[in-house]
Amino acid sequence: MDSTLAAMLVGGVATAAVLLFFAMSRKPVKCPSCGREQPKARQPDSLNQAMWGGYTCQGCGAEMDARGKLKNKK
Known about the structure:
Helices cover 38% and strands 5% of the residues. The protein has 2 helices and 2 strands. It has a two-stranded antiparallel ribbon with strand order 1-2. It is elongated and about 55 Å long.
C-alpha cells in the first residue's frame, strides 16, 4: 500500500470519528411547544432539514431549526 494512500485513509477515519463524537455528544433538543425531547438520530422531513439540520416534533408536529427554535410559519 502506498504511504500517501495510507495517510489519507487514517486521516479520513480520524475525521469521521471526531464528527461522530461531536454529533452524539451535543445536548438534546426539546420542543418549545410541547417539551418533548427529540431523538439524537433524526430523520429529516425535507431537503432543508437534511442540509441544515432541524426537527419536526414527533409529539405535536412543530418544525424547529437545528437548535430547537420554532420556525416561523409562512
